[in-house]
Amino acid sequence: MVVYYSQSGNTKKMAKLVAEGIKKEGVEVTLKEVKDAKADELLKYDCVVLGSPTYYGTMAAEIKQLLDDSVKFHGKLEGKVGAAFASSANVAGGNETTVLDILNAMLIHGMIIQGDPQGDHYGAVAIGAPDERASKECLRLGTRVAKLAKLVSA
Ligand SMILES: Cc1cc2nc3c(=O)[nH]c(=O)nc-3n(C[C@H](O)[C@H](O)[C@H](O)COP(=O)(O)O)c2cc1C
């Protein structure tokens, strides 16, 4: 499942690319805006990927709310694959800290997080809308999480 919040469409474009990468691996994907997602839905999926714009160096309140709501299922997301992506306005504007804050919550849930030694190390990041580089990173993130989810759920 790929869930995102996006006010001006940049993170939405990233989310679509991540979902495309997942599909490329032959894995089914549900793509949702966070307003249409409920915390209990997270239980249904082998893998959860969250995307957010960078707001003051961290995730948007809407994504934090979904994570806070997931406390109802604390312990139940253990062993699922997690990943994150973020858009910011500026280089060094906090997109990596946004990704890491999301991953931090996922780790507390006991989720499995894979870093990337070649691509964006923590999760895909973009400055504004995804350019060619960021688009490749979003696709790459999607294929990598799908591969891992297949392994974990086998
Ligand atoms: C409330 C608010 C806080 C923001 N804080 C940051 C920030 O700390 N660093 C940064 O680079 N961009 C910041 N931005 C810019 C957004 O992260 C950026 O425009 C992003 O691409 C928006 O994504 P979206 O089109 O998916 O909404 C902020 C924007 C808003 C509205």
Distance between the termini: 18 Å
Beta content = 15-25%
Ligand identities? flavin mononucleotide
Helix-strand pattern, N to C?
A: EHEEHEHEEH
Low-confidence region ranges:
none
Radius of gyration from the alpha-carbon trace, in angstroms? 14 Å
Report helical residue fraction. Answer: 25-40%
Task: Report the total helices.
Answer: 4
Instruction: Estimate the global geometry from the Cα principal axes.
Output: globular
What structural category arises from helix and sheet content?
Answer: alpha/beta
Architecture overview:
It is a single chain. The longest helix is centred in the C-terminal third of the chain and has 22 residues, at 132-153. It is globular and about 35 Å long. The protein starts with a strand and ends with a helix. 39% of the residues lie in helices and 17% in strands. The chain has helices at 10-24, 61-69, 95-108, 132-153, and strands spanning 2-4, 31-33, 47-53, 81-88, 112-113, 125-127. It is of the alpha/beta class. Strands 1, 2, 3, 4, 5 and 6 form a 6-stranded parallel β-sheet that branches. The chain has 4 helices and 6 strands. It binds flavin mononucleotide. Flavin mononucleotide is lined by residues 6-12, 53-57, 87-90, 93-94, 128. Residues 6-12, 53-57, 87-90, 93-94, 128 line the site of flavin mononucleotide (FMN).
